[in-house]
Design brief:
elongated, single chain, mainly alpha, four-stranded antiparallel β-sheet
């Protein structure tokens, strides 16, 4: 299948997609306005940009980007080229770039605001497995994530980076809008990918407890992990390995881009 550069958008979405399923089955976080999303305290002095994103090539810069509020049609226009099957495009919600930025920023935290996750969740319910007096996470749950692991494998990473460079001003604008006027989204993205790559591989079966309504990990160390790391564990070891490898490859490409400008995050917007 011929792949479009817009596959890059899908990989960024995939970093945070499963959070919506995790929240609906486990946390049931209340609806959150974007002003209420947890953010890091803003510092007075702008930090140095660790992983700069270069300017788009001249031929790309001749095509003006839409405003952030109007960016969805530009992304959706690429769906026919991105997806072999029409139903994949129907997974996406509106305000795609804003949702990506909010989700990525919150993956290392305890919860991800369900209201801002970019994709529809899988329809199936969480299925536990009981053995005598112990409840485990059933391997049947892993199957619901296999399709997303396959899509991650299908991403054309050679076309991902040019798209990311092209759209980067919109991601930066959304990040500043979120409450980080002196921070740089690409630095945060790499930081979050590194955090996800540190997710431990756990021994199976994974024991669960149900103190109230929702199932939790029986191991306190697992339950203390971030939302993003627990999402990867709930995907199952095979799916998580696929996602982590693709994130590792993506991180390598976006962490060492040529620096063609010297601008502060405020100047990037």
């Amino acid at each position: 299948m011929k792949k479009s550069a817009l596959w890059g958008v899908f990989l960024l979405v995939l970093v945070g997609f499963i959070a919506v399923f995790y929240l609906r089955q486990q946390d049931r976080a209340p609806e959150t306005d974007i002003a209420d999303v947890e953010t890091i305290t803003v510092v007075e002095e702008a930090p140095a940009i660790r992983h700069p994103v270069p300017d788009a090539p001249p031929e790309e810069k001749e095509k003006p980007l839409p405003l952030l509020d109007d960016s969805d049609p530009a992304v959706r226009a690429g769906y026919p080229a991105i997806f072999e099957h029409r139903e994949f495009g129907q997974l996406f919600l509106d305000q795609i770039i804003r949702r990506i930025v909010v989700t990525v920023d919150n993956l290392p935290r305890r919860t991800v605001p369900q209201k801002f996750v970019p994709l529809q969740p899988p329809p199936d319910s969480f299925v536990p497995e009981a053995e005598e007096d112990v409840t485990f996470m059933s391997p049947e749950n892993y199957k619901r994530y296999t399709i997303y692991a396959r899509l991650a494998e299908a991403v054309d990473l050679q076309r991902l980076v040019p798209l990311y460079v092209r759209l980067y001003p919109l991601f930066q604008s959304a990040y500043v809008e979120l409450g980080y006027p002196t921070a740089y989204f690409n630095d945060r993205l790499i930081e979050v990918i590194d955090h996800l790559l540190e997710t431990p591989r756990v021994e199976e079966p994974v024991a669960l407890v149900r103190p109230k309504v929702f199932y939790l990990f029986a191991d306190p160390q697992l339950e203390a992990l971030s939302a993003g790391q627990k999402i990867l564990i709930r995907m199952g070891p095979e799916n998580a390995a696929v996602i982590k490898e693709r994130l590792r490859q993506f991180r390598h490409q976006i962490s060492d881009l040529p620096d063609t400008r010297e601008m502060t995050p405020q100047q990037q917007t």
